[in-house]
Request: fold
Amino acid sequence: MYRYRRLVATLTMVALPIVLTACAEEHPAAAPSPAAPDPDPTPTASAPAAGPIAATCPPDAGYPSNGELRGVTDNAQDSLWALLFLREPRLGADVETKIVWRMTGSGTFDIEATGPYGVVVEPIWGPDLHDGSSWNRPGDEWGTGWNFPTAGCWTVQADRSNGVSGSLTLRIG
Reply:
C-alpha cells in the first residue's frame, strides 16, 4: 500500500508542473507559472499546516544533537514529543528515518505527514507501541519509520482516539 501511495505522490509531483505549464500557456492570465510556486511553504495563520493545528516550519534542516523535539497540541495539558534517530544532523529526503513518539491521551494512535504540494505519506512501518523505555516524556510511546519522498516542510499530524491531536513540522533537506 505504501509503495502505491509513494508512486501516486511521485507521479503527482512530476505531473503537476506539466499540467500547470499547459494551463498557463493556454490561458496566460488564468494560471501562474509553475516555476514560481514555493515547494517549501511555511505555514501561516492564513495557510495553516495539515490538520487543525498549525506548526511552524524550522528555519533549517538541522536538529538538536539529542534528537528530541516537542510538537504542538490542541490543549495545554496534552503533549506530543518526537525522538529522531538521525544518521547525520539533518533529515534527508528518500532516507529511512526512525522516529519515536510520546503522546498523552488514550486509545489508538494515528499518524501521517503532509508535505510539499499536499502530498500525504504514512509511516513505512509502525506505529508500534513500546512497552518500556528510558525516554522520560509524558504519554504512551510508539516507534515509526519514515521515508519522506521530497525535501521541504512536512507536518506530521498525530491523533489519539480520545480526541487529543498534535503536530510537528519537520524540514527535510
In short: Residues 1-52 have pLDDT under 50 and may be disordered. The two ends are 25 Å apart (CA to CA). The first strand starts at residue 68 and ends at 70.
